[in-house]
Amino acid sequence: MMTFDKRQTNIAKGVAVLLLLWHHLFYNDPKNYGKFISILKIDNVPIECVIAGSCKVCVAIFLLLSGYGLYRSYQNICNGTIENKRINVKKDCKFVWNHWIKMMSGYWFIYIIFVPMGLLFGRSFLTYYGLNPIYYLTEFFGLTYLFFEYNVIFNVTWWFMSVIIVLYIIFPLLHKLLTWQSEITLSLSILFMFVNIPFLHNINYWFAPFVFGMYISKHNLFSKILTLCDTLLKRISLSILLIVVSLYIRITFLKNAVYFDAFFAFAIILFSYMVLSNIPKLSKSFEILGKHSANIFMFHTFIYSYYFQPIIYFPRYSLLIYIFMVLVCLFISLGLEYLKKITRYNKLFLKLRFSV
């Protein structure tokens, strides 16, 4: 039986990063309508912008996969023994630190390259933040969205860093709650979306997909569904049906709000797992993109918006712009990884990790 492993995760991340780039390139704002030539307009709104609204599900996909992966990693450390039901503060802190430092090492590499580049494009820290050291510190540690409004962040896409860091920190607690009562924990994470907590800046919206990923991992739902769908036709039919139903609910009842995105993301990942992964060349392309998804997420806003917008939108036609952007991001990420390799950057941060 095909397990949902690292390869499957990367394929799904590849899908998510494509949705991410579409969502941002053609964000549904009248200011963006003149940036490209649309293939079709609906009530004077480019179809690309209509589609872009639903592409925000990429956030939930990344979070669901993160919850799934962390849970699986934690279980491997505990070896499935009774130990994972006990509180081991030292081990939990080491686990959180190791995953945090791995993520932040990638973030800091992008930071030290792309933030100073702002000096060449009139977007330096000094002109943006002045002399307030608080902004410098929160931005460096990816925590600006925890303390300030969305539009204050130097790179607006980095709001996600605050979300995922909080989820990493509370992961051991979520794991204990899921071990105690998984259905109750999942239900509470969904209800938490509807609680207005001003100082959280809507971070509570994103607990549900993360916890849902943990829940799926605990109950091995992907593999169980794959076993039940014993033919390719059943797998295609079920996954497409779930995507269509989720999309319909999101667009009609929720007006493109994110409240249902945990289940929408689940449907897309299921399609990736049961259908896309069985198409060799296509799945390999998605897998390659998925391996570079973290890099692309962290720097793509600098490319298409802050520094090189005229170049990215130069092809004019929407599909050409999109293809061009995907290729540019992939090649930049390949270059960054090569730079990490020759500078032994990753080895430096490996020394900061603990054995658990």
Task: Give an overview in words.
- This protein is mainly alpha-helical.
- It is built from 18 helices and 2 strands.
- The longest helix is centred in the first third of the chain and has 26 residues.
- The radius of gyration is 20 Å and the shape is globular.
- The mean pLDDT is 93.
In short:
The protein is an all-alpha fold and 356 residues long.
SSE inventory with pairings:
Layout: H1 6-25, E1 41-42, E2 45-46, H2 47-54, H3 57-78, H4 89-114, H5 125-129, H6 133-140, H7 144-147, H8 159-180, H9 182-191, H10 207-219, H11 221-228, H12 232-253, H13 261-274, H14 280-291, H15 293-307, H16 309-312, H17 318-343, H18 345-350
Antiparallel strand pairs: 1-2
Helix pairs in contact: 1-2, 1-3, 1-13, 1-14, 1-15, 1-17, 3-8, 3-10, 3-13, 4-8, 4-15, 8-9, 8-10, 9-10, 10-13, 12-13, 15-17
Report the total helices: 18
Number of strands: 2
Mean pLDDT: 93
| Cα Rg | 20 Å
Largest sheet: 2 strands, antiparallel
User: What fraction, in percent, of the residue positions are helical?
Assistant: 55-70%
Which outline best applies?
globular
- How do the strands line up in the largest sheet? 1-2
Report the uncertain regions.
Answer: none
Q: Which key terms come to mind for this protein?
A:
mainly alpha, 69% helix, 18 helices, two-stranded antiparallel ribbon, 356 residues, single chain
